[in-house]
Amino acid sequence: MITVYNTMTRKKEEFHPLREGEVSIYCCGVTPYNDPHIGNARPFVTWDVIRRYLAHKGYRVRYIQNFTDVDDKIINAANREDVTWKEISDRYIAAYFTAMDALNVRRADVFPRVSETMDDIIRMIETLIERGYAYVTETGDVYYSVEAFAPYGCLSGRSLDDMEAGARVEVNATKHHPMDFALWKAAKPGEPSWDSPWGKGRPGWHIECSAMSVKYLGEAFDFHGGGSDLIFPHHENEIAQADPCIDADVKFARYWLHNGFITIDNEKMSKSKNNFFTVKDILKEYPGEVIRFFILQTHYRSPLDFSDERLQEAQTALARLKGANEVIDELLKREGTADTAADLAAQSEAFLRDFDAAMDDDFNTALAISQMFGLAKEINRYHQEVERGAVFDAAHFRTAAEAYRKMAGIIGIFEQDDAAPADDGLTNAVMDFVISLRQEARAEKNWVLADKIRDGLKEAGVLIEDTPTGVRWKRA
Ligand SMILES: [Zn+2]
C-alpha cells in the first residue's frame, strides 16, 4: 500500500488510483527563459523516480508536464536580445531537455505549451465568465473573482482576509477584490497576442495548468506536483479555476505533492536571489547521475542544502554502488551450480521488500537507497568468498543481481557509461531543433521543405513520426 503526504489534507493518506491499474500525473513545468538551475530540476527528478516506482508496481502511468512559453520573463528576455519570444522559448526548452536528459529524467507523455493550448484556455475562461466566476473589465482584461469561489484557500489553508493582510496588494481600481487575479491580459504594444472574445491578449499564468491538466488527463486525475512555492497562489488558483468548470461530481487533482526547496547556506536557491547554480554548469564538474543521486539522497519534501562537499559525498557514495554493479557484471559471466548464495538470495529479497516499503512510505528515496547499500555490501562479501575459493552459485546469485538492478532502475542510476563523458544531450538538443524547423515549415505550409527535412533525416538513419501528442523521433 502506497501512502503519500497530501498537501490538501496535510497528512499522509493511502493512495488509491482513480482508475484501476492507472496513475495520472500533472506536474508544473518550467518557464523557458533561462537554463534550468538545480532547484528547478528537483521536482522533475522526483517525479521521474515516482513514475519509475509506480511502473515497477504494475501501474500504467500517464505524465503531463507543461511549458509556460508565453510569459513576461520570456518577453523581457526577447526584448533584451531583440529576438522573438518564440526564439527564446524554443532555445530554453531545448536547454531544459539537454539538462534533464543528463539527469536520466525520462520524457513526459505530453509537453503542452501555452501557445499551442490557446483554444482550450480561452474556452475555460469563457466557462468561468458564464458561470459567474470571472468578469471582463473595460480594458479587455479578464479577472477571476475569488469571492465567488467559497473554498478559495482550501489548499494553502489561508482565508481571504489573511491573504489580503499578508499581500502587498497593487492598487488596481478595475478589480472587484484585491486578491482577484488575471485570467486574460489585454495586449500591450510590442507583446505577442492572440485573438479572443475580449480582444487581443494573452492568458495569465495560472489558467494554463487548469486547462492543460483537464485537457490531457480529464476532469479528475491522481497526482498534481510541483515545488512548494507553487502552493500559493498558483495551485490554489488552479483549483479555483478548474473546479467550477467540472460538471461531474469529481475532484480535480486528488493528491497534491510538493517538493521542498534546494538551499544554499540555508537560503532558498532562486534566480531572483542570484544564488543559483545551473545544471549545465554543475555538469562541467560532475556527471549527471551524481547530481541526480545527490537530489535523491534526501526525501523530496525535506529541504536540500547544496554544496560542493555534498556533491563530492554523493559522488563517492554512488561510486560504491557502482562498484557492486561491476562485481555483478563480472560474476554473471561465470557458471556454477553450487549452493553457496542461498543466503544472499534470501537477503536480496528482504532488501528489495524494504526498498519497496521505503518507497511506499511517501516515496522515501533516502531510505530506499540505504537498502541498496545494504545489498551492495552483501554482494561484495559474497564476491570475496568466491575469490577466496568458494564455489560459485549462479542461480542464487542471479536473484540477488536482479534485485539490485531493479532498485537501480527505479532510482535511475547505472544508465550512463562511465568510460564516456556524461551524455551532454547534444543529440536530443539537435533533434529538437531540427524538428522545430520542420514544424515551422509545416506551419507555413512549406511542404517541400518539411518533406525534405523528413527525407534527409531518414537518409541519416532517423525516423520521425507525427503522433497525436506531438512529433517523436527514433533511430532507424
Ligand atoms: Zn502549473
From TrEMBL:
EC number(s) stated in the UniProt entry for this protein: 6.1.1.16
Gene: cysS
Species this protein is from: Selenomonas flueggei ATCC 43531
Annotated GO biological process: cysteinyl-tRNA aminoacylation
NCBIfam families: cysS
This protein's UniProt keywords: Aminoacyl-tRNA synthetase, ATP-binding, Coiled coil, Cytoplasm, Ligase, Metal-binding, Nucleotide-binding, Protein biosynthesis, Zinc
Name this polypeptide is given: Cysteine--tRNA ligase
Keyword field contains Metal-binding: yes
Residue intervals passing through the bilayer: none
Motif 'KMSKS' region, chain ranges: 268-272
Binding positions (Zn(2+)): 28, 209, 234, 238
Subunit structure: Monomer.
